[in-house]
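Data availability (excerpt). The following record was deposited with the supplementary files.
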Amino acid sequence: MGLPKKLTEQQIKFANLLICEEGRKTATQCAIEAGYAKRSAFMIASRLQNVNKYPHLLKAIDSEVTFVDIELSIDTKDRNKLMKSAEKSNSKVIASIHETKATPNAEEIVNLVKENKDNGDIVKFCSFVSNHRDALQILEAANSLVGEESNHCLMGLGNGGDWVRLHAPVLGQEMVYATMQNSFRLSDKGLINVRDLRDAWALMEY
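Predicted structure:
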């Protein structure tokens, strides 16, 4: 069997979600939303990002983009190929860490960022926030990293997950993920609208 000549509708949807969600959803979540079965979504998401099996998907992800968001959980060989492709296209690499089960404590988050600072131009940490204690761990980690020689951005998904986004200018965040969505109670998801974020920064004189 040769390589697929065209992407299926599900593969195209997966690629679009992976690009548009930009860290707000894991690759597994994008696979589920694209229509793949939950029980096999993790395996399929990993396979769809395999540059040997799906070179067209690689092109869809990294063509003409300033940043390429690459999960650190991807197989090392595949990740290295993606890194080389990004380097050739002058795309900066965001080394993504997604904790989907629980938020580590602040010290563990700091260590994750420091340990992976050479795996990309920016280290991104994102975890699901179950309560304000989780949100405070991310905020404390961000504060501990101020002044450190690492380019990073931290965030959470859930109520309180937007605290670091809101205070990014004083917490030394290299970049901030915001959304164009304007739905009610975005903050419950840890998200923030781009315009609202700019207004908040102006109000706080950041």
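Summary of structural features: The two ends are 56 Å apart (CA to CA).
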